[in-house]
TrEMBL record:
Top-rank lineage group of the source organism: Bacteria
The protein, known as: Uncharacterized protein
UniProt keyword list: Membrane, Transmembrane, Transmembrane helix
Organism listed in the record: Niveispirillum lacus
Transmembrane segments: 22-42, 48-69, 176-198, 218-239
Length: 274
């Protein structure tokens, strides 16, 4: 009996999985794939290519891609958290938090009352004496809050969490993605030079007429793919940075801690959906 294979992406990934895992993986391979499509359009649009793509998807290519993105993201996450001095949520609960004192104390009061186990938060002196121990206490409270803030009632939390996961996983994929794009540009450059042997001379002598003919002969598809790969390299280098991930982490931290200000009945309802 044939085993039914889900082909709908929605069946393989939930909303978070698509945004935080699948999309980073697809963005990583998109520029090189676009270059391949530009150079070999007849093959990639043929029945053979369609069959190979269908088989790859049936064998879990998209799922593997999303899983790889998450793995790379989690690996870089531990290094990022160490460089930050702790999780953004934890840092907001500490005495040296950027949160205003009234809001911070309100959050701590709520967590001290609701978190099971009679959790006691550290004093200023205890934070200074044992930063790791203090962070562990805050981390425990945040873990409880994360588990409690599940369900459609906490849409903003889920939205910011997906945004953070998206950026974190892109940052984790950055070395691999840059390598792919640079290799693609090198191969495309060599292919163009092979196809147009006099290109270097045309550029050196500023032969605009010859360059215009080269552009016309190469066609918009190849040139567009080249430009997109160059643009992708710039984005990976200057946009996908540790700071970019930290900004999303802070936004998620604020959204998660804001759950403490929600009505107890709403939070209790959220806990039942865990």
């Amino acid at each position: 009996m044939a085993i039914p294979i889900p082909t709908d992406i929605a069946q393989m990934f939930d909303s978070y999985g698509r945004q935080a895992r699948l999309f980073p993986g697809l963005l990583t391979i998109f520029p090189p794939l676009l270059a391949g499509l530009a150079w070999f359009p007849s093959f990639l649009l043929s029945n053979v290519a369609a069959t190979l793509l269908t088989l790859a998807m049936a064998c879990g290519l998209l799922y593997a891609l999303g899983s790889y993105a998450r793995t790379k993201g989690k690996r870089i996450e531990s290094k990022l958290v160490k460089s930050w001095g702790g999780w953004p949520t934890t840092l907001l609960l500490r005495h040296d938090s950027e949160l205003d004192e009234h809001t911070r104390l309100r959050y701590l009061k709520y967590l001290a009352r609701e978190v099971p186990g009679n959790l006691t938060f550290p004093t200023v002196q205890e934070e200074q004496t044992s930063p790791a121990g203090a962070n562990a206490t805050y981390d425990s409270a945040v873990r409880w809050l994360k588990e409690s803030a599940r369900g459609k009632e906490f849409a903003m939390v889920h939205l910011e969490n997906a945004q953070y996961g998206f950026r974190r996983n892109l940052r984790g994929l950055k070395p691999f993605a840059l390598t792919l794009c640079v290799l693609t540009l090198i191969i495309m450059t060599l292919a163009i030079l092979t196809k147009v042997p006099g290109l270097v001379e045309f550029v050196r002598t500023s032969n605009l007429a010859a360059l215009a003919k080269v552009v016309s002969d190469l066609g918009p598809a190849i040139l567009s793919a080249f430009v997109i790969n160059v643009f992708a390299v710039l984005v990976w280098v200057f946009v996908v940075t540790n700071r970019w991930v930290r900004e999303a982490g802070n936004q998620y931290a604020y959204a998660l801690l804001a759950v403490c200000d929600m009505k107890p009945s709403t939070l209790t309802k959220g806990k039942k959906t865990v």
